[in-house]
Design a protein that fits this description.
Elements: H1 2-6, H2 9-21, H3 27-39, H4 43-56, H5 61-73, H6 77-90, H7 95-108, H8 111-124, H9 129-142, H10 145-158, H11 163-176, H12 179-192, H13 197-206, H14 217-228, H15 239-253, H16 265-272, H17 274-280, H18 288-306, H19 315-328, H20 337-349, H21 354-365, H22 377-381, H23 388-410, H24 420-431, H25 451-458, H26 468-471, E1 478-482, H27 488-492, E2 500-505, H28 508-520, E3 526-530, E4 543-549, H29 558-568, E5 569-580, H30 586-598, H31 604-615, H32 635-642, H33 652-661, E6 665-669, H34 673-682, H35 692-701, E7 709-716
Parallel strand pairs: 1-2, 1-4, 2-3, 4-5
Antiparallel strand pairs: 5-7, 6-7
Length: 718
């Protein structure tokens, strides 16, 4: 035991084991060895040792408590509860056991008992900062935010540098609507523990709700830097902050003609800013002035290169970042015939020598993707990659597309697609996998939740019934993502605890993208199938949960598609749907009508031409179209927005009929708290916010309620 106390764990383990081998059957020996095995992540052996210690001495409260803790850590809550209660039976006034009991009850969802146990622990041991922190978490879940705030502040008073308490404080301030304080507390947590997954998750949840002000500018800058260095976020959430941070300087830079000038201090400051350069490799800025600036700067760099004029060296990393940006938006920018000729000239001359190749590659890549050009593999290999921008360029435009091509070969097809509309839709997404992204909202394993908890958080209905597969800790619920596209939804499903995910899509190109991304996030619980949603019965299995967002409304008969999915949904299962709103897509309907009137086809040239006409203000009825954000500023997303071959729109009335016809119960729209609060004020009698007639009236009064699409959960009763 002396060696164990001194930290000589290896020798302590050997001596404990020798004592047992020679027949020294003492409960302390087994218990201490169990502690070593627990700390070295050998839980099954630790459990066996604790049980042996209890067999020798059934009345040792500490061993029962240790075993209860171990069971809790591994999600076996019933066993954890039983041994912890036994520990308290043997030692009734143990504050640590009551503290642990509170945690177990919280995990079980018994918040009232969790509260009572934690309060009892603090009665016995008032200065336990972790217990005060946990108490704050329980109050938060109970909706008592004032008490949650007081308990968390007390925890920090006792232990000021606890990153978890600061993170929790940030979450409480968020729920209270104090977003600037939420930001400050969350950043403090990250300052103390840079890889704190809870803090990162919190900041991702509200960063897009913040507006820069003199009071929070410093914190927002820090948060922005943290998030552009994170791989576990959809960086498009930062687009509003990007515009706030860089648009004024961009507008100042554009006053100079030409842009590239030693006197253009605004431009020089922009291209020297690593945050701007990195952002261009991660997100698509949704603003016309920014697009025009990048188009003009791209053209000036091209003309300088083609005329053998010197390009400032400091522009090289920026040009590489711009090339990645152009690849992300799928070369949606307008370009002149002159630029086309000059790019072809650069391609030809880049084949003369490695030096010219190195000079021209990034400029060429601003107009054409590298993987589609017949370039020297040896020269590509030797292209200098001294900085993040050069590595990102080669990764996005060469290495990743090549990997996707290899993956595509390995994807096996199911039944041949027979539906005529499905074939047309397939052709769209084979040409342009949708959407293209660098990173996504991936949930750290420690933050995953049972699907029942996720649905409770995302829906507005109380007292929802859940099957064991959705509500127990050790269940492995089966989840279907129907129409997974490039995998954003799949990666977002990492929030589901222990889920076994099946993802299907029509497009081999989209599936290859999705497979590559899930491999990057090491999601080993996902299988992919190339198939039509209408043939989902051929999966030969039923699912506890189905997600189908942005798919049914592109089918010839959405009801037929929902029938196919509903047949594969287990009784007491849940389905998450995303369907176009007729009111929210009013401007899109006008755009589609104009496209039809002009006789435009869903080709790259037609899409670019029409989009440029919109930007130039040629269609007065379409001036709001650029306000659809990224959907307008990416080629494939603009195609999906306005040029799709098939589209159905829904009202709340037709939505209710669709659900009724399939025996599904509406569980509430997935919307920001700010909108739900306004709805609640207007319709206080609709306690669970599931009256679709009321929602129809609400949407008519506030047509911006939905961002083009109804997103909601529905329940299938047994």
């Amino acid at each position: 035991m002396r060696l164990h106390i001194q930290g000589d764990i290896k020798n302590a383990e050997n001596l404990y084991r020798q004592a047992i081998d020679i027949g020294f059957l003492n409960e302390t020996t087994f218990s201490n060895l169990g502690v070593i095995y627990k700390n070295s992540e050998r839980p099954e052996e630790a459990i066996a040792l604790y049980k042996k210690a209890i067999e020798i001495n059934p009345n040792d409260p500490n061993v029962h408590a240790n075993l209860g803790n171990l069971y809790r850590e591994h999600g076996k809550l019933d066993e954890a509860l039983a041994f912890t209660l036994k520990s308290l039976e043997l030692k009734p006034n143990n504050p640590d056991a009551y503290y642990n009991l509170g945690g177990i009850y919280k995990d079980l969802g018994n918040l009232d008992q969790a509260l009572a146990s934690t309060l009892k622990s603090l009665e016995l041991k008032p200065d336990n900062p972790t217990a005060h922190m946990n108490l704050g978490g329980i109050y938060k879940e109970l909706g008592n935010l004032d008490q949650a705030l007081a308990s968390t502040l007390k925890s920090l008073e006792l232990k000021p540098d606890n990153p978890d308490s600061h993170s929790n404080l940030g979450g409480i301030h968020k729920d209270l609507g104090n977003l600037d304080q939420a930001l400050a507390s969350t950043l403090k947590s990250l300052e103390l523990k840079a890889d704190n997954p809870t803090a990162l998750n919190n900041i991702k949840a509200f960063i897009d709700q913040l507006t820069t002000s003199p009071a929070n500018a410093h914190y927002l800058t820090k948060a922005y830097e943290v998030l552009i260095n994170s791989d576990n976020i959809t960086h498009q959430k930062l687009s509003t902050l990007f515009n706030q941070a860089f648009l004024p300087t961009i507008q100042e830079a554009t006053k100079s003609d030409p842009l590239i000038s030693a006197d253009n201090n605004a431009l020089n400051n922009l291209v020297a800013d690593w945050r701007l350069r990195k952002s261009l490799t991660l997100l698509i800025p949704p603003h016309q002035d920014i697009e025009n600036f990048l188009i003009d700067l791209r053209k000036e760099i091209l003309i300088l290169a083609a005329n053998h004029k010197s390009i400032p060296k400091y522009l090289k990393p920026f040009t590489e970042a711009l090339a990645t940006q152009c690849f992300l938006n799928e070369y949606v920018y307008a370009q002149s015939p002159e630029e086309e000729e000059l790019v072809n000239w650069l391609i030809k001359n880049s084949r003369v020598s490695q030096d010219l190749f190195n000079q021209y590659l990034a400029i060429i890549a601003c107009y054409k993707p590298i993987h589609q050009l017949n370039l020297s593999s040896e020269w590509l290999k030797n292209y200098p990659r001294p900085c993040y921008e050069s590595r990102a360029l080669l990764q996005t435009q060469l290495e990743e597309p090549k990997k996707e091509e290899r993956i595509k070969v390995s994807i096996q097809s199911g039944l041949e697609i027979a539906d005529a509309i499905s074939l047309k839709v397939q052709a769209i997404y084979e040409a342009n996998p949708y959407p293209r992204y660098r990173h996504a909202d991936h949930t750290h394993k420690s933050l995953t939740k049972k699907i029942s908890e996720i649905i409770k958080l995302e829906s507005t209905t109380d007292y929802l019934p859940f099957s064991e597969a959705l509500s127990t800790n050790h269940a492995q619920p089966k989840v279907l993502i129907a129409g997974c596209g490039t995998g954003n939804q799949v990666i977002a499903a990492s929030r589901y605890k222990n889920a076994q995910i099946t993802s299907i899509d029509l497009s081999r190109s989209s599936l290859a993208y999705a497979i590559r991304k899930t491999q990057e996030y090491k999601m080993n619980n996902v299988s992919f199938k190339k198939m039509d949603l209408l043939d989902v019965i051929d999966l030969s299995e039923k699912f506890d949960t189905i997600e189908c967002s942005g798919v049914l409304h592109h089918m010839e008969n959405p009801a037929k598609g929902l029938t196919a999915l509903n047949n594969q949904l287990k009784p007491n299962g849940y389905i998450k749907l995303g369907l176009y709103s007729e009111i929210a897509r009013h401007d899109i309907t006008k755009a589609r009508n104009r496209i039809k009137q002009l006789g435009l086809k869903s080709t790259v040239n037609c899409i670019k031409e029409f989009r440029q006409q919109v930007l130039q203000g040629e269609f007065k009825e379409l001036t709001n179209l650029p306000n659809f954000g990224r959907d307008f500023y990416s080629l494939s997303e603009f195609r999906d927005l306005c040029f799709h071959v098939q589209e159905h729109l829904f009202t709340t009335e037709s939505l209710q009929a669709l659900l009724d016809n399939h025996g599904l119960i509406f569980c509430g729209f997935i919307l920001p708290e700010s909108i739900l609060k306004v709805y609640k004020e207007q319709f206080p009698d609709d306690s669970d916010m599931t009256n679709l007639n009321n929602w129809g009236r609400f949407e008519e009064q506030q047509p911006t309620t939905f961002s083009g699409m109804y997103q909601f959960w529905a329940y299938k009763p047994s």
